Amino acid sequence: MRIETERGNFSFRCLMAGQFVGGKGWTHPSNQPGHYEVIYMLEGELSIQEGLSAYILSPGDLLVLSSDLPRFGMLPSGKKLSFYWMEFETDSTDMLGIQVSCKVGSESRQLPHLFQQLLLIRDREEYPAGSVDYAALLLLSEIAADQAAAATSAPKIVQEIAAWVRRNIKNPITAADVGKEFGYNPDYLTALFKENFGIGLKEYINLHKLRKAKEYLKATDCPIKEIAAMLGFGSANQFIKYFTYHEGVSPSRYRSAYFHQKM
Question: Dihedral angle at the C-alpha atoms of 95, 88, 144, 220, nearest 10 degrees?
């Protein structure tokens, strides 16, 4: 479905949703990129890896997985496991207001009810067409609010560093550069980021560097060499190696696959 807002238009579709209940020994299946996934933990502990980032989810944890990175379970569950999940596709997570590759501890009392409402609408034929998508959008609005609340509750220094990284993402910055800029040990900052964002400082830098790279590849026809320069890489070859290492596909092939999907 196409959504019209004051800020612009974007597409959205809820693909699947459900509540998983499993026993000891279950692991999240391996999935290739192609859609976003939301996981909200109810019981037990779930370990999952997305790209190079690893997450351990406990009851109350909320994780939004990217459509661009492969994901797979790391360790089998040790006891009864239960969580809500939803898969969706969109051409603008920014318009939805959500952060992908983001884990937060949710304190929302509405989230379980919104998942239950979504599953109820999914199973009832009498609801009009598009009802599932609208229920999913309401759920994602609550998730966006949870993420925003978690971001503002992070220590001030973490918020300042995160904002600085986003502002300077076009420069060749490293965790050591950030530590030097703010006068902190990089290992200490990595622990702070892991505690507040679910990923380390280096992973946070890579996440936003790759996100900006994908934005250029999808939204412009700039040559790879120019994109490399705009992102602070010394050469096109250095950028190609970096992108391919993290994404498992070259920038050119990523761009071609995106435009092929859009046709």
Answer: -30
